[in-house]
Amino acid sequence: MDETIYLQLEDGSCYKGKAFGATLRKEVIAEMVFTTAMTGYVETLTDPSYYGQMVLQTFPLMGNYGVNPGDFESSTIHMSAYIAHECCHTPSNFRSQQNLHSLLKQKNIPGIYGVDTRALTKKIREQGAMNARLTSTPPSFDDAILLKKHRLTNSVSQVTCSAPYLMENGAWRHHVVLMDFGAKKNILRKLHSLGCKLTIVPASYPASEILALNPDGIMLSNGPGDPKDNPEIIHQLSSLCKTHIPLSGICLGHQLLALANGAKTEKLKFGHRGANQPVKDLRSGRIYITSQNHGYSVINDSLPENAELAFINLNDHSCEGIRYLDFPGLSVQFHPEACGGPQDTEYLFQEFIQMMERRNQLCP
To answer: Which of the following is catalytic: 31, 43, 335, 339?
Structure first.
């Protein structure tokens, strides 16, 4: 810890900082992204949607309330490296079981602190998300040329569950199949608290086997990477849409459902990551503050005739939600389970429950 290491961006710029977390035994190359969340760093670290990325926290102090495994959104850390301005090594919180440095070391994730995170964030906002290198030796300007070629593929296969499993309570009312593209635990907890028995299945699970489970509804989870890298999943979803089983999607699940219905997606300049993204419900006109983590978006003008734009982002007017008109489907780009973040849009889980109840009344 505290050894000098270097962060180089693909534009050739280099930042010197101090190491913490796992020892940097070999250089790390990944896409560098930033999140504006002021709290919830444990949830950020354990969010599978950050798989393979180097995450920069814009809030200057990380680790001040320590680490509690009860806040984990998955069993491990999926990002490649962690960037902070200042790291607190002596946290103060009654729930804390270890500090941030020891967690990163335990999970074998290198970190760098003492860098100008404000300058890094401004660079990404102006130039767009870019690849970066974390190295223990001073890199040359020529080294940056190779960074541009780095691209992750098949990200979902690295974070999905390996086999189906159940999560149920004694008095469940609805059976939901959750397709795990890298699901955050709080999605499961929210559905479970609303009386749902959950069957969590791998991302590659065939539509025919999902239907054989006789679900009342299907939830499509969040996850990492470019949605267009998942053609087989998109094909399976197009089949599920024809069954009229209620479908709900969050984040990557929202994008995949849109692609399955003929819409298109694009990479955003620097993505939406944090707990303060303003979103407008186009039916009610109401504005919500939401938690988000994504680098891709559904293109508004590409929506098919069977879909309508339901929510937009008030910062850039990008698509934040879609309602489907020829089957019971609603998907959102933001995180209604919001862990961490505001809980303004938790009602969307209840709307999913109502979709299943309406279908059960029509098809008892």
So the answer is: 335
- Answer yes or no: 89 catalytic: no
Mean per-residue pLDDT, 117-136: 95
Where does a domain end: 128, 147, 166?
147
Residue 244 designated active-site: no
Do 52 and 162 belong together in one domain? Answer: no
Answer yes or no: do 137 and 189 share one domain. no
pLDDT tens digits, 282-294: 999 999 999 999 9
Please give, one letter per residue, the 3-state secondary structure of 67-110.
ECHHHCCCCCCCCCEEEECEECCCCCCCCCCECHHHHHHHCCCE
CA 132 and chain centroid, separation? 20
Same domain, 141 and 184: no
Residue 44 has pLDDT above 90, yes or no: yes
The whole domain housing 54 covers 4-147
Q: Which of 196, 251, 319, 339 is catalytic?
A: 251
Is-catalytic flag, 126? Answer: no
Q: Indicate if the pLDDT at residue 171 is higher than 90.
A: no
Residue 364, pLDDT score:
60
What CATH code is carried by the domain that includes residue 104? 3.50.30.20
The pTM (predicted TM-score) of the whole model is 0.96
Given the residues 31, 43, 320, 337, the one annotated as active site: 337
